[in-house]
Amino acid sequence: MDTHQYSVHVDQRGRLVLPVSVRHQLGIEQGSTLILAVQEDGMLRLISPGEAARRGRGLLRKLAPDTTKDRQLADELIAERRSEAEHE
């Protein structure tokens, strides 16, 4: 998506009004919830909860144990038990 800049007004209650074209483009409707991120450089970023979840997927995957090894051990144990049962 191309980057566009818009001038927005902050009213007395601190509300920002997003331009209609932006709301339509991003599917933002009345009552939509957005996440406001304040970046270190002072920039504001609005993110939909769905986009935040999408970006967060896999972040903890590196910390999860390697289940491939566990599955292989389980398969070996099952094969061993079946073999033992056949010889009884």
Q: Profile the largest sheet.
A: 2 strands, antiparallel
- Mean of all residue-level pLDDT scores: 85
Structural class: mainly alpha
Query: Helical element count?
Result: 3
The number of domains: 1
What portion of residues is helical? 25-40%
Instruction: Give the low-pLDDT segments.
Output: none
Give the H and E element order.
Answer: HEEHH
Q: N- to C-terminal separation?
A: 67 Å
Structure in words:
The protein has helices spanning 20-26, 49-56, 67-86; strands spanning 35-38, 44-47. The mean pLDDT is 85. It has a two-stranded antiparallel sheet with strand order 1-2. The protein has 3 helices and 2 strands. The chain is mainly alpha-helical. It has one domain (20-86).
Show the helix and strand layout.
Layout: H1 20-26, E1 35-38, E2 44-47, H2 49-56, H3 67-86
Antiparallel strand pairs: 1-2
Observed structural traits:
40% helix, 3 helices, single chain, 88 residues, mainly alpha, two-stranded antiparallel sheet
How would you summarize what this structure contains?
The chain is built from 3 helices and 2 strands; from the N terminus they run αββαα.
